[in-house]
Amino acid sequence: MQITDFAVVKNEQIARDVFELQLSIVNYQLSIAPGQFVNLQIDGFYLRRPISICGWDGETLTLIYKIVGQGTARLAQYEAGETINALVGLGNGYTPVQAERPLLLGGGVGVPPLYYLAKELAKAGQKPIAVLGFKCADESFYEDHFRALCETVVMTEDGSHGQEGFVTHAMPGINYDAIYACGPEAMLRAIYEQAKELPPGHTQLSFERRMGCGFGACMVCSCKTVTGYKRICKEGPVLTKEEIIWT
Amino acid sequence: MDLSVTLSGVKLQNPVIPASGCFGYGQEFRAFYDIDMLGSFSCKGTTLEPRFGNELPRVAECASGMLNAVGLQNPGIHAVIAEELPRLKEHFHQPLIANISGFALEEYTQCCEMISQCEQVGIIELNISCPNVHGGGMAFGVCPKSAAEVTAACKKVSAKPLYVKLSPNVTDICEIARACEAAGADGLSLINTLLGMRIDLKARKPVLANKFGGLSGPAIFPVALRMVYQVFGAVKIPIMGMGGVSNARDVIEMMLAGAGAVQVGAANLVNPYVCKEIIEELPAVMQQLDITSLKDIIGGAHT
Q1: Do A87 and B272 touch (CB under 8 A)?
Q2: A191 with A168: CB under 8 angstroms?
Q3: B218 to chain A, minimum CA–CA distance in Å?
Q4: I need a labelling partner for B241 at 20 to 30 A (CA). Which of A77, A161, B91, B176 fits?
């Protein structure tokens, strides 16, 4: 966990209400793992906004966010050259397991953290397959980025792009031995119910919650798990299938 | 420059104290700085039994502040004594403020008795003002009679100075303050959060699952300051002032109103370094204001 100022390099719309934000930092050692998030201080808003990490190459941090309220609407107005303060290295991200064919399932703005993970898995010699789910063609993004890394399937709810249906509709036709997912809770639950039995720790789901601090102090994002109460910001956002209790 | 203050005989190296519920049991903040530089900190509100707290969402935002409805999530007093305090001992050598809460008189007294035996604890802070739990917490703190009863019962079993944390959600906080003083309180902490709410415009329903939550942050600073000022004039016991304090100037303002020490709450959640920064910033601000000892300015705005 570190707190630091970043310079905005680029903040561009890449789909309907969806923006890609690139932040740069000089001379700073950051350790950032796939599935972790940053908590951004947005001008005019008291609480920080947690955003998952789409990429980090040692100099540039890439975040993808959707305008869902006043805070993210203000974030979309940031221009190149402006400064933004961030708490980084937050959360317990994905823990890559030994697998031949890891399946990455992303829904909407749940897709970005899986891109960072896909890169790391590919680097480690694994052959991931990605299934990206969006509401419609206008809201889809990063398909080409994924295709450059791995086999990729795109699903849209209305069939306006790729195949029609949810990400779970693509699962039966795929041979996989690990699952990494991020998206709306209904999607995660459907994955949980439909996924085939895999060894413990091989099904990892990343959750979203309204957060206060983002580093485990305020207890507003707590959840009940098989192994006790956990904080989505600290012990999460990634939980394994074995520990999840649905409420 | 003398930053030290003394609360009921407990000497603190400075008056800066992270407030209960915003600092856990100290561990999360160790990743950011050496917490031993703090005057003290008030631990997460602890109850007899472990509690999960309220359903989610438990947080909402507003201009210059936030609302929370955590509902006293904590591991319970036994786990705090067996696990949290020993873990803290390695890294924190200042007198700790133990914040305890309950749903019945006996729970308060049991917690009080147990925690007051712990060597690390300097002061007990009795939370009779949590707005987020039902049938306990604030119910004790909004009526002078029940506030006095729980104070007197806890005072009897406590080997440490007993501070009562007051709710601002009352008609006359001075009346409650006087009742606690008469019942034997060694000091007072104020204010807890102000009860508020937000409504989700799209869903047309309250943002918080609990509907209402406690408002904190800079938005409440003037209200807190006014209440500390009023209570200082109403009682003779020391006050820990809190509510929206975010920087060294706020600390000095709170002390001028009558606070013998100052707690910092919500600001820790937005900037984990805020208490460290305040402590480091204080000497320069004191110099600007011709203050050589913080002890000398307590209640200074009353003359």
Answers
A1: yes
A2: yes
A3: 9
A4: B91
Asked if A107 and A208 sit in the same domain, the reply is yes
How does DSSP classify residue A239? E
For residue B212, the cross-strand partners are none
Q: Which residue, among B10, B9, B15, B8, has the nearest Cα to B295 in the 3D structure?
A: B15
The answer on A84 and A110 residing in a single domain is no
B residues 229-268 lying closer than 8 A (beta carbon) to A: 266, 268
The pair of structure tokens assigned to B24 is 């856990």
Contact B273 A47 (CB under 8 A): no
Nearest CA in chain A to B269: A213
For residues A107 and A80, membership in a common domain is answered with: no
Chain A contact set for B61 (CB, 8 A): 45-47, 71
A147 pLDDT tier (thresholds 50, 70, 90)? very high
| Burial class of B33 by CB neighbour count within 10 A (0 to 12, 13 to 18, 19+) | middle
Axis-axis angle for helices B248-257, B274-288 (nearest 10): 70
B57 and A224 within 8 Å at the Cβ level: the answer is no
Both A63 and A113 in one domain: the answer is: no
What is the secondary structure of B255-282 as a DSSP string? HHHT-SEEEE-THHHH-TTHHHHHHHHH
Domain positions in chain B = 5-51+70-197+214-297
- CATH code of the domain containing A153: 3.40.50.80
Between CA B106 and CA B102 the distance in angstroms is 8
- Position B38 scores a pLDDT of 98
Q: Do B53 and A215 touch (CB under 8 A)?
A: no
> How far is the alpha carbon of A179 from chain B, nearest alpha carbon, in Å?
27
- Of B124, B45, B30, B113, nearest in space to B80 by CA: B45
What is the total count of domains within chain A?
A: 2
Active site (catalytic) residues of B: 130
The model's pLDDT over B188-199, given as tens digits with 9 standing for 90+, comes to: 999 999 999 999
Q: Give the architecture (CATH level 2) of B5-51+70-197+214-297.
A: Alpha-Beta Barrel (3.20)
pLDDT band at B137 (very low <50, low <70, confident <90, very high): low
In a domain, A95, yes or no: no
Is B136 a residue whose pLDDT tops 70?
no
Say if residue B135's pLDDT is above 70: no
Residue range of the domain that includes A173 = 102-243
- List the single best residue of A2, A4, A46, A68 to mutate versus B (max B Cβ within 10 A): A46
Percentages helix, strand, coil for chain A (3-state, rounded to 5) are 20, 35, 45
- Confidence (pTM): 0.96
Q: What is the predicted pLDDT for the residue at A30?
A: 83
Q: What is the ipTM of this complex?
A: 0.95
Same domain for A141 and A228, yes or no, is yes
Q: How many angstroms separate the Cα of B20 from the Cα of each of A150, A212, A217, B6, B212?
A: 48, 15, 10, 20, 19
SS3 of residue A75 by DSSP: helix
